[in-house]
Amino acid sequence: MNLGNVAKELSFIDFGDICKNCEANCCRRFYAVLLPEEELLFKESSFTVSTPLGAVKAIGSRNGKPCPYLSEDNLCKIYSMRPFDCRIWPVIMYYDLKTGDKVIYLDLQCPAVIKNTLSKEVVDKVIEVLKKIDVDEEWLKKYTLAPWPNTLKEITRINSPQNS
Ligand code: SF4
User: Fold this and answer.
1) Atom 2 of ligand 1: nearest residue by CA position
2) 19: closest CA among 58, 71, 59, 55?
3) Ligand 1 mutation target, pool 34, 59, 67, most atoms within 8 A of CB
4) I want to staple 67 with a disulfide (CB 3.0 to 4.6 A). Which of 34, 60, 96, 129 is the partner?
5) What is the pTM of this model?
6) What 3-state DSSP class applies to 94?
């Protein structure tokens, strides 16, 4: 398995010990939407998620079952190869359908966000990468509309060229 180009840019992300023994079990509860460039890499394990703008592909938890890549000791078996969405969470970047801005959030579903124990340095680095990567805008709109708890806290936004 190869690593997608966007995920490669984010290979520095490691939230370290924070995820160990976490009671949230994100890989048992949520799915990760695949970037178009990741769909082929994960075609054996992906499933379709419908959005009002069309379908996206995802891996992870489904029908109450954990992600097939989660080991019995709660570790990701493909950690160094995990896709973009797994990699950046609990950071999320959505498209603001009203303004065209890209909005970066922290997801309050992650206990480390609530407890404020995430490394600010790592989060800031993630934001810097998200500001410069070229994510397909049509995909980003679908990703934004894919069903999600949406308990999000905005941390910054990247203004669309018409708003800057
Ligand atoms: S690929 Fe790894 S990090 Fe992503 S949901 Fe599955 S087990 Fe979790």
Assistant:
1) 76
2) 71
3) 67
4) 60
5) 0.92
6) strand
